[in-house]
Design brief:
Structural class: alpha/beta
CATH class of the largest domain: Alpha Beta
Number of domains: 2
Largest sheet: 23 strands, parallel
CATH topology of the largest domain: Spore Coat Polysaccharide Biosynthesis Protein SpsA, Chain A
CATH architecture of the largest domain: Alpha-Beta Complex
Helix content: 10-25%
Strand content: 25-35%
Bound molecules: uridine-diphosphate-N-acetylglucosamine, calcium ion
Radius of gyration: 31 Å
């Protein structure tokens, strides 16, 4: 017996007021639909069917996942009609789980339980108790508290409208039975739609067992119809991510001002100041401190490294005991060895900085290999690009690059060499020398400044 999941994603999402299909709108940087798909994978689903309609090409391109079987619903005639599109592809022996592309935070544990309790030949249904059930389908029970049907808001009588147990839409059923019930659906109701919810009544009529479960957290079953709801779920999700880090021994100075858009591994005793954004895959080792407003993407930050505020680090590997920023930018393929210092307004790209080396102020280091204990003065620029090709700059251990120097690549600066401030170095420099290219200073006594001609 396998598990087939049907994800409904054919709705238009008009209230998003977007040219992008609703299910592609991201939560934590990832399309809502992808969240649901990833949860299905965590359940080890054998088949994942996505029922699409509006913006189908765009959705398939954006999701581009071989494990998905795409099923088109040409016209949106209701949730029951949407699930019925998958009927030909469902194995009679399977369990079928119905999910929604715009209900992104549904959790593995909740679904795992729902599948566990699904009675053979019957249905397990995820319901929720709400103070204000307006708009939702109501769960109708008999005197023995058995579920006998679901009635939609628009079809409910005044008595049923008082029921505050609502349908989340999420359910698990046995495939063969579900297919039979889908075949019985009609659109004879207030909205003229084929309601998936009617299968509950059919199952009850067939004396099949219908059991219910509820989510651990209400936001798991909240759908997104507009940008307000999208923003609310984004914050809810981010707060959950923050809680996990706090439990793991990370200090977040404000868990409400932390954003994770990817995966992060953070050791205990790391501190994140406010407004840190983490994207892609990031590892931060113990004792590191990430200052306010830093963006870390696909990078590794070593032990006890201090990243001062407003620094942006992308695809870089940073060793331990380094100091970075404030206002530093580490671009892809940068490697900082232990105890390296990168200061304010310094950009480093595709370069290695050896341990104990310092690039502290206003510099550009690109395509470079810098050894150990090198000091790169303020305003130093590696001229790595000749307009057509990139070239390498090599600076050996112990070298000292005076302020405002230009190193025109390809060029090598020798061990312990000293470059005088303001030099333009276009040829290799030997070990242990002072090299200086600036014009000799001269004085012109009694110099008269020009005066304005009237
Ligand atoms: C549905 C349930 C209602 C439940 C509520 C929970 C039905 C008849 N009603 O109502 O009991 O309380 O969800 O939010 O199922 N969709 C398609 N194709 C269609 C129609 C819908 O793919 O033809 C998708 C939509 O994109 C959406 C989902 O199904 O993701 C739900 O559809 P929607 O019309 O919003 O259902 P509700 O009226 O909210
Ligand atoms: Ca509707």
């Amino acid at each position: 017996m396998g598990l087939s999941v049907v994800i409904l994603a054919a709705g238009q999402g008009t209230r998003m007021r977007s040219s992008m299909p609703k299910v592609l709108h991201p939560i934590a940087g990832k399309p809502m639909l992808q969240h649901v798909i990833d949860t299905c994978k965590s359940l080890r689903a054998d088949n994942i069917f996505v029922v699409y309609g509006h913006g189908g090409d765009q959705v398939q391109q954006a999701i581009n996942d071989d494990s998905i079987q795409w099923v088109k619903q040409e016209q949106q005639l209701g949730t029951g009609h949407a699930v019925a599109q998958v009927k030909p592809f469902l194995n009679d022996q399977d369990k079928v789980l119905i999910l929604y592309g715009d209900v992104p935070l549904i959790h593995h544990d909740t679904l795992f339980e729902l599948l566990e309790i699904q009675p053979a030949g019957g249905i397990s249904l995820l319901t929720n108790i709400l103070d204000d059930p307006t708009g939702y389908g109501r769960i109708v029970r008999d005197d023995d508290n058995r579920v006998i049907g679901i009635v939609e808001q628009k079809d409910a009588n005044s008595h049923q409208l008082l029921i505050n147990e609502v349908n989340t839409g999420i359910l698990a059923a046995s495939s063969a039975e579900l297919k039979g019930w889908l075949g019985q659906l009609s659109s004879d109701n207030a909205q003229g739609e084929f309601y998936l919810t009617d299968v509950i009544g059919f199952a009850a009529n067939d004396q099949r067992e219908i059991v219910t479960a509820s989510p651990n957290n209400s936001n798991e079953v909240e759908g997104v119809n507009n940008r307000q709801q999208l923003a609310a779920l984004e914050r809810a999700y981010q707060l959950q991510c923050a809680q996990v880090l706090l439990e793991g021994g990370v200090t977040l100075l404000d868990p409400y001002r932390f954003d994770l858009r990817g995966k992060v591994t953070i050791d205990p005793d790391v501190t994140l100041d406010v407004n840190v954004i983490i994207e892609g895959t990031v590892v931060i080792e113990s004792g590191a401190y990430i200052g306010a407003n830093c963006v870390l993407k696909d990078c590794h930050i070593g032990k006890n490294t201090l990243v001062k505020p407003n620094s942006v680090i992308e695809q870089a590997v940073v060793g331990s005991d380094c100091t970075i920023g404030p206002f530093a930018r580490l671009r892809p393929d940068t490697v900082l060895h232990n105890d390296a210092h990168i200061g304010n307004f310094v950009e480093v790209k595709k370069s290695t900085i050896g341990s104990g080396s310092k690039v502290n102020h206003l510099a550009y280091i690109g395509d470079s290999e810098i050894g150990q204990r090198v000091n790169v003065g303020a305003g130093t620029i590696t001229c790595n690009y000749d307009g057509a090709n990139k070239h390498k700059t090599i600076i050996k251990d112990g070298a000292f690059i005076g302020s405002d120097s230009q190193l025109v690549a390809p060029v090598t600066i020798g061990f312990n060499a000293t470059i005088g401030a303001g030099s333009t170095i276009a040829k290799d420099v030997s070990d242990d020398v002072l090299c200086i290219t600036r014009v000799k200073q001269k004085e012109i006594p009694g110099w008269q400044r020009p005066v304005k001609s009237k």
